[in-house]
Amino acid sequence: GMLNHLCLNVFFVSTVTTVIFNANPLLRYDGYYMLADFLEIPNMRPKAEKQLQQWFAWWCLGIDVPNDPFMPTTGRAWFVLFAIASSVYRWVVLFGITVFLYTVLKPYRLQSVGIMLAVGSVSAIIVGSGWNLYKLLSTPREDPMSKVKLTVSAAVVCLLIAGILFIPVPWYEEAACYVEPVGIEHVYTRIPGFVEEIKTQPDKTIEAGAPLLVLKNPDLDDRLEQLNLQEKLQQKEMESYEATGDRDGQRLATEHLDAIRDQITELKLQISQTSVVAPIAGKVISPPRIPAPKRERSREQLASWTDTPLAPKNEKAFLEPRTHIASIAPGDEFHAVLLVNQGDRGDLKIGDTVRVKLDLYPDQVFDGKITTFADRYLEFAPPALSNKYGGPLPTVSDSQGREKLTSPVFQGTIEFEEQPPSLTTGMRGRVRFVVQKRTVFDWVWRWFRQTFHFRL
Questions:
Q1: What secondary structure does DSSP assign to 234-252, as a single string?
Q2: Using CA atoms, how far apart are residues 430 and 358, in angstroms rounded to an integer?
Q3: Which of 201, 203, 219 is nearest to 211 (CA)?
Q4: Given Cys at both, which of 216, 292, 295, 340 links 196, Cβ 3.0 to 4.6 Å?
Q5: Could you give the CA distance from residue 375 to residue 345 in angstroms, rounded to a whole number?
Q6: Helix count and strand count (H, E) for the chain
């Protein structure tokens, strides 16, 4: 996404200019020096870390550290906040550089070098923090540590960790959806062929079994003609064996004749499937439109059909197997089709109440209830929901031009409590549902995984 792209570019551009051009291996960017000059505080980071140590020693351990005359007397809270932010920043930079080195060195099978550098850096930070704590505790002093503050600090830390890990925090999640008629049936080609005749057009009402279009496959016709000729020859061969009394030859010829007739039966079944018929009665709905290829691309390959297969201009065009011809809607009632990520599937069940916001009505929210869920994940996304066409789902195009989802998604249906007006097939929207069982750690970890995608 845009956030990932901008953050990555800012990070690497700043790192290159800081380390290479400014010869600053400490990765203190220009903002650090600008802030130090603006506040007129030299060595701002060491002073901030020392101030953080003093606060930690007094409030958590009850140790009174002597004041440093060179430390600032005002704005100490900002120093502590800066020290905490610097520590977080240090870990972020360490993690980013480690991942970068790992991915760069992996093609050369030198990823162990990046791992060793990461282990060394982490060990240095941990050892340094432990050494500072040891010096703080071993410093001679008149008053002992406060057991009350130490106990309270330990209890607060334990409660915070327990709250983050175990206390559920209700929050909402969102998923993509689109609208389609209830009971809709999608019609696809089974056999490849050229469009011989278009029998109907979108928005017309047809009966079950009525043809939508007729295909012609010359290869199947030629093969059927050859098999009919082979059947006649094999029939004559069997009759000749019968006339001569050769029972073994007659038996073998009969087996060959039965095999040819089985092939003819199978081939006639395939030829019958060149007539694409409606599985149910209802209204014909257009499939997603295929735009015309760009001029540069049309020069590289032969032009195929465009718009929809039922468009009159596509007569004599070649259709591949599994081409979406049309959809048949048996009625005027609509429902929403929910596409939920695998990570959220366990938080939803049939009967749960959700809220739907459609792109056509951005200021209105419609309540609904989940009625069904698919047993297996969906591999391909509807083109309207692909991020290549402005949708929310990230997809990649396969060799057949289908939009394949980059992560597992499960499909469900939502029944509206009150039908929204003026719905059309394929209308996009968002579904919001409340998750009750996730802790703060689960929410933060989920946000991190969704924001940063590292493929090692």
A1: HHHHHHHHHHHT-HHHHHH
A2: 6
A3: 201
A4: 216
A5: 11
A6: 11, 16
Cα–Cα distance for residue pair 32/43, rounded to 1 Å: 10
Tokens of 315: 């007569």
Classified as helix, coil or strand, 292 is: coil
SS3 221: helix
Is the four-CA dihedral 24, 26, 28, 33 of positive or negative sign? Answer: negative
Residue type, 36: A
User: Rounded distance, CA 411 to CA 393, Å?
Assistant: 13
Q: What does the block give as tokens for 178?
A: 């689109």
How far apart (Å, rounded) are the C-alpha atoms in residues 424 and 181? 8
Whole-angstrom distance, CA of residue 160 vs CA of residue 83:
21
Can you give the pLDDT of all 456 residues of the chain as single tens digits?
A: 678 778 777 776 766 565 555 544 455 555 666 777 777 677 777 787 788 877 777 777 777 776 776 676 677 788 788 888 878 887 877 777 777 777 778 778 787 887 888 788 888 888 888 887 787 777 776 667 777 887 888 888 899 899 888 888 888 889 999 999 999 999 999 999 999 999 999 989 999 999 999 999 999 999 999 999 999 998 988 888 888 888 888 888 889 989 999 999 999 999 999 999 999 999 999 887 776 665 555 444 445 788 889 998 888 889 988 888 999 999 889 999 999 988 888 889 899 999 999 998 988 999 999 999 998 888 888 878 888 877 888 888 877 667 888 888 999 999 999 988 888 888 999 999 998 888 888 888 887 777 666 555
Tokens 């900002």 belong to 78
| N- to C-terminal Cα separation, the chain | 19
* Residue 184 dihedral angles phi and psi, to the nearest 5°: -65, 145
Which is it for the CA torsion 435, 363, 387, 378, positive or negative? positive
- Helix (H), strand (E) at residue 222: helix 218-244
Q: At residue 192, what is the residue type?
A: P
Q: Is the pTM of this model over 0.70?
A: no
Tell the residue number behind the tokens 């570019």, with chain if given.
Answer: 9
Task: Show the tokens assigned to 344.
Answer: 């959220």
